Amino acid sequence: MDHAQLAALPKAELHLHIEGTLEPELAFTLARRNGITLPFASIEDLRSRYDYRNLQSFLDLYYALTDVLRTAEDFRDLTAAYLARAARDGVRHAEIFFDPQAHRRRGVPLAAVLEGLQAAVSASRDVSVYLIPCFLRDLGPDAAMETLGELLPFAGSFAAVGLDSAEVGYPPELFVDVFARARAEGLPAVAHAGEEGPPEYIRQALDLLRVRRVDHGVRCLDDPELVARLADEQIPLTVCPLSNVRLAVVPDLAAHPLPRMLDAGLAVTLNSDDPAYFGGYVGEVYARTAETFGLSAAEVHRLAETSVRASFLPPAARQRLLGA
Ligand code: HPA
Ligand code: ZN
Predict the structure, then answer these.
(1) Which CATH class is domain 3-313?
(2) What is the residue with the minimal CA distance to atom 7 of ligand 1?
(3) What is the model's pTM?
C-alpha cells in the first residue's frame, strides 16, 4: 500500500502523549513567547540530543522541553498542530494522553492545561478526541491519589485514566487504590506495562488495575501463558514500534516482534507514542511497519480496524468509522 492508501484508511490513535508532539520549532516559538531561555543553542543542537539510551534518557529530555508549555494557549497550539497532522494521516479518532503532574509541579494549573486541550479539541473537525490523564508512576501512589482528587471534578472530560513515565521499579500494584477509586468514579483504566518492565507488570495491570488496554505490552512475549491469555481475552495492546526502536527496547525495526504478536492472535494496534521525539507520526508508523514486514493490505486494514474497535468510542460511533 502506498502512503495515500494508508492515509485513506480510517484509524484511531490510542497511544499518543500530547507533550510528545512538541516539535523543536514549536518549542523554540513557545520559549520565546513565554520569555524562557532553553538550555539548547538552536533547533539543530536540540535535535542532536534526540538519541536515547533507554526510556529514562528520553524522559529527561521530554520533561525538560515540556517546560515551555505554560499557558492554555500553549496547550491549544500544541494540540491543534497534532490534530492537523493526525487528520492528514487518516486518524479519525484520537485518545490523547497528558501528564497533569508534569505541569502542576512547574506551577501550571490543571485548569489551564484542560482549557487549552479542550479549545483545540472543540475546534477539531476531522478528528474526534478523548482525553486520558496519566499518573506519573515514579512520583508514587500518594501523589497519584492527590492528582486523581484534582481530576475528579472534571471526570466527565476524560475517557479513562492512565499510568506512564519510568516503568521499572514502579509496578502497577502500587497504584491499586488509585485505580479502584477512579473505577468507582466511573473512569476505566489503561496503563503502560511491559515496555521495559516484565510480563508480571502486565498481569498486575490486568488483574489489579483492571485495565481495558495495555500500552506497549511488547514484553508479554517473554511469557507464553500471558500471550495466550491476552489473545484469548483480546485485550488491545497499543504497540509503538518506532518508540521501541528509539528507546532501545528492540535493536531495529526489523527485529521488532510485531509479526510474532500478529501471529499469536493478539489485538495489536499501531501508534506513535511521542512522534516529535521518535521520528514519525502514525502514518509513518503504518508505512514503515508495513514496508519492513511486508504486511499485506488485509493485514494493514486489520490493524486500522483493531484500532477503532479498541477505542473507548461507543459501539455506534465505532461502527460508523468502520463503515466509512
Ligand atoms: N513510556 C512511559 N512514559 C512515557 C512514554 C513512554 O513511552 N512517553 C511519554 N511518557
Ligand atoms: Zn507512551
Answers:
(1) alpha beta
(2) 273
(3) 0.98
